[in-house]
């Protein structure tokens, strides 16, 4: 009776023999012997064992404990919950992908608009009078921005287009 109760309660708590042995400061073989009915714990260990298994000593010694069983209703409700969780994850993933796709579209649009703005300006700042310090600073900043943009924006545009293509790729 005691050996079955120890085994059933240990399994119900989700503990291995090794884990229970560590908690009780004994070796795993001792727990195995208790569960096989080859030996019994002494009174001090019996109290510690009852505490670790969240039960009373009387239940350990006499009352039978049923091994936890999973019935079909529990499995069905669990599978339904898992299905709902999976659907939620799929919706979140799709929303993330859609958001990334729209951000990449927006980046492409911004790059094209800025290219058109620079083309319309035709680098007019190069004709400014650079003897005026304020115009010299503003012209230098505009030239630096245009210089960097014209060299880096094509790579960003290509990367964005590739990203958009990958977000449409079927999984």
UniProtKB/TrEMBL annotation:
The chain crosses the membrane at residues 102-121, 141-168. One of its GO terms (molecular function) is DNA binding. InterPro entries: Cro/C1-type_HTH, Lambda_DNA-bd_dom_sf. The keyword Ribosomal protein does not apply. PROSITE patterns: HTH_CROC1 (PS50943). It holds the Pfam family HTH_3. Keywords: DNA-binding, Membrane, Transmembrane, Transmembrane helix. The keyword Cytoplasm does not apply. Residues 6-60 form the HTH cro/C1-type domain. PANTHER family: TRACRIPTIONAL REGULATORY PROTEIN-RELATED-RELATED, TRANSCRIPTIONAL REGULATOR. This is Transcriptional regulator. It comes from Anaerostipes butyraticus.
